[in-house]
């Protein structure tokens, strides 16, 4: 039986998601954690009836903590099944994806590999920029949470898996960092593409190394 939820998410999201879950189960104990250390404290000591929910978090949950969740652990990933891994919005823009979205899935020790229990899709806008797409993705994740939240708050049983499977290459922080390093001979169209995908809303993300000196792009007024 579900007795407690540990909610792993940011400072702004935590109170709103907590209120939503309590509307569906007023008897539920909910603990909000933002970091791995806070999560470790929230799950100790081990006790029955706990479910972990991650929402748009960058924290990688180790297998020992996942094992402490008797009522399964689920994550809301800010990207669709076609874009697992880190910074999915950036790579979707760079690759010219036609659709994007948010994915709810079972947490496993291997990141973005568990059974998918829900997806919220939307069409990509024309010439999307990173800050714009991340806003649309957050809204999609909220809609997905609204759909699945009642069951997550009231039943200790596992959510039903969908027929959707993960696909595409899993992006890493190293991949993102590599795309942020601009070669001196970069063509104008490629620079614009990287500005939209990797720098919009992130001053200083792109850098150029020239004659041993590293320069960062801080002024985005003309992006």
Instruction: Give the ordered list of helices and strands.
Output: EHEHEHEHEEHHEHEE
Number of E-state strands = 9
Give the rounded overall mean pLDDT: 94
Please identify the top-level CATH class of the largest domain: Alpha Beta
Through-space gap between termini = 52 Å
Q: How large a portion of the residues is in β-strands, by DSSP E?
A: 15-25%
* Reported CATH architecture of the largest domain: 3-Layer(aba) Sandwich
- How would the global form be characterised? elongated
How are the strands of the biggest sheet laid out side by side?
A: 2-1-3-4-5-6
Count of the separate structural domains: 2
Decide which structural class fits the backbone. alpha/beta
Largest sheet: 6 strands, mixed
Low-confidence stretches: none
CATH superfamily of the largest domain: Formyl transferase, N-terminal domain
The fold-level CATH name of the largest domain is Rossmann fold
State Rg. 19 Å
Number of discrete helical segments: 7
């Amino acid at each position: 039986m579900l007795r407690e939820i540990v909610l792993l998410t940011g400072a702004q999201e935590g109170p709103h998601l907590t209120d939503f879950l309590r509307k569906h189960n007023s008897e539920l104990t909910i603990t909000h954690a933002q970091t791995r250390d806070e999560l470790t404290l929230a799950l100790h000591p081990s006790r029955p009836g706990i479910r972990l929910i991650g929402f748009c978090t960058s924290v990688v949950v180790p297998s020992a903590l996942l094992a402490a969740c008797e009522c399964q652990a689920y994550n809301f990933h800010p990207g669709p099944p076609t874009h697992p891994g880190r910074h999915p919005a950036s790579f979707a823009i760079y690759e010219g994806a036609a659709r994007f979205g948010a994915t709810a899935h079972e947490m496993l020790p291997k990141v973005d590999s568990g059974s998918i229990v829900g997806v919220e899709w939307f069409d990509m806008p024309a010439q999307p920029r990173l800050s714009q797409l991340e806003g649309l993705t957050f809204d999609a994740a909220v809609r997905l949470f609204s759909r699945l939240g009642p069951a997550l708050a009231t039943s200790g049983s596992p959510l039903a898996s969908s027929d959707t499977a993960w696909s595409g290459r899993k992006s890493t922080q190293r991949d993102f960092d590599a795309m942020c390093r601009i070669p001196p001979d970069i063509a104008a169209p490629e620079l614009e593409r990287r500005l939209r995908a990797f720098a919009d809303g992130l001053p200083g993300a792109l850098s150029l190394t020239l004659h041993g000196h590293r320069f960062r792009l801080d002024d985005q007024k003309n992006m």
